[in-house]
Each structure stands twice: as C-alpha cells, then as structure tokens.
Amino acid sequence: MPLVQVRLPQRQRSYEIVIGPDLLSKLGRLSRTVLGSQSRRVALISNTAVFERYGRRTLQSLRAANFKTSPWLMPDGEQHKSLRSLGYALEFLAESGLERGDAVIALGGGVVGDLAGFAAATYLRGIAFVQVPTTLLAQIDAAIGGKTGVNLPAGKNLVGAFHQPHLVVIDTATLQTLPQRELTSGWSEAVKQGAVGSRKLFEQTCRFLQSGGGTDLSLRTIKKRPRTDVRATDLDEVIAAHCRFKASIVTRDEREDIDRTDHKSRRILNFGHTTAHALERLTRYRRFRHGEAVGLGMLVAGEISKNLGMLAPGELESLREAVRLCGPLPRASDLAIETIIRAMRLDKKSVGGVTRWILLERIGRACIVDGKEIDKPTLRSSLRTGLQPLYW
C-alpha cells in the first residue's frame, strides 16, 4: 500500500497520503489515528451520487471508530461550488454541534473537496479536515496541497483559503465506478503534471494509457490480467507517482508565492488552466469537466509555446498524442475567440492586470511567461488551432 508524505515547513501541518484499494473500510481507524481521541464529531460532506455508492460503508467505518457522524449532501456539479452552497454547509456544521476539536471529512471529487475544505477552513476559524477523494482528478491533484474555495459568477475559485488536510485517503477501488468522462478528466490532469514536472512521469502515464488501463479500471478486468500486465500492477503506483510529484511541489511552494517564477513554482501546475477556466466560465460550468477543459487548455498553451519558438514541434506532437490518449474532449471550436480572450482577463493568476501564462520549454520543463510577451495574433492563432477537435 503506497504511502506518500507531504512534508511542510511547519511540521504540524504535514500529513500522509494513503493509497490502495478498499480503504474506505479503514477510514475510521486512519482518521482516529491522526485526529486523536479529542475528536468526537465529524461532518461528512458528499454528494448524492457518491454517497449512494459509498456512504453506508464510510459511515460504518467512522462510527466503528467512535465518531459521531452526520452527513450533509451537496448537489452534484461545478455550478454548485458556490457561496450559497458554502453557506448551507456552514449552517450544517453549526447545527451538528461541531467544536474546535472535531473535523470535516470530504467524500467525493474536487468540487466536494474544495467546498468542504473551505467550510473547514472558515468554521470556528478553522477545524481539522480529511480528504477522501473518489475521482481520479481529485486523487492525483485537487485533494493534495490545501487549496480550497468556491466560484463566483466572475470566475472560478476566486474565493478560498489554503487549509491543509490532516490526512488524504485514496481508495483506488472507487475509480471502478467512474464514468468515462471522469476518467478522461483525471488522465488529462495526469498528463498536465507530467508535462510540467517530469518526463519520466509523463512517459509513465502515457505507457499506462497506451496499455488501455486508463479506460478500463473495473476490478473484474484488472483481476483477470496477468501480473505482468501494466493494468494489474501499476494503477496504485501511477497514482502514487503523481501524488509524490504534487507533494514535492507543495513542499517547496505551499502557498503559490506570487514572486516565484522558476520552474519549481507551484504556479506551473496551472498549465492549461488559463484557457480552461475561461472555457468553463463561458459555458457556465456545464459543458466541460474541469480536466477536459484543462486538456484543451494544454493544447492551446502548447501551440503558444511552439509559436514563440520555445517548444519543438515534435514535443508538441507528443503532448497532443498524450491528450488524445486520455479520451474524447467536448467541442470548444464553436466558442468565439475574442470572447475567450476577454474571459481570460479575469484569470486569478494575473499580476498587475497581466495574465501569467504557464508554457513549455520541453516535456517535463515548464516556465512562467508574462502575457505581454504574447501578441494578439499569436494568441488568436494558438486558440484557433489548439481548440480544434482531436481525432481518435
């Protein structure tokens, strides 16, 4: 069972990521170990779809560890990651009688984790928080690093806080029930992390996807594979490798230092996100899963990198092939280029009103570029080309 340490400068905020199948049944014991005997109550925040599959087992595990547990279910979908939902969640925490020594547990994907984490960060000025991500994207990215928040009509994640979890429990068996689009979304984020951080991680991810393992994670299929098959042996390790990469970034740059512009900055994880957030906002968070929008955003950023003479055409083709391996992406070519550009101006990564782009020098090496260095014709051309459909 892989175990990843997130070691932060303040030791009391460091935590572990536990990875393996069927960990929901051990959640109570694992949570009790990190929360201590003083924690009496936990609020379990989830959504209906996830809770129907995993709620009963989760509640049984927590109650077996002597936690008084109350569930609160939010609506499913990015559009519900809002101040309104946050208000309902905070009211629930108060009504449940949670005290400073108690905790919030998030059971679900990135939307649930972001909202539950922000509620934990703000209720009683901050209480303990445990992440139990059930989607691939959340397991390798969103649940790690302490970013929490909600959206505003003006843009995504504009209100939030850094609030590190006390523990992250990744039950890889939950991936068996994910629809294909959620897998595509998660693998797109995996490609992003390899593209900006490590050619080795990029190639490991691509090998797993080329094996077909990324599109068929059913336990029945995995158990029938010989142990030499990458799908039988490597899923936990691929996820662990991505967790180790994310942990290494968070350890070096916990709060995304605005003055840090080197390739080890946490900001490099925003590769593909400038376009992605604009696409999500323009379609009211209904057309794209987040990772799907990031997949398209990476292709745009790759085109810009090539057009600026930074990225070799062969490297861009490797990126395009990796995104293609993740699965079909929703159409974006019908959105007006000028409208997308206007939406980008609200990007939260802007400094002095100028967008900071994350671009590539090569696979595994990202850089931060001032938007002033990208002229309008280059941006328009890159958007037009990058948002054209990929063919399978």
Any overview of this molecule?
By secondary structure, this protein is α/β, with parallel strands linked by helices. The protein has two domains: about 5-175, 3-Layer(aba) Sandwich (Rossmann fold); about 180-385, Dehydroquinate synthase-like, alpha domain, CATH 1.20.1090.10. The chain has 15 helices and eleven strands. The strands form three sheets. Strands 1-2-9-6-5-3-4 form a seven-stranded mixed beta sheet, with helices on both faces. The protein has a two-stranded antiparallel ribbon with strand order 7-8. β1 (about 5) and β2 (about 15-20) form a beta hairpin. α6 runs antiparallel to α7 (about 200-210). The longest helix has 18 residues, at about 180-195. The radius of gyration is 20 Å and the shape is globular. It starts with a strand and ends in a 6-residue tail after the last helix.
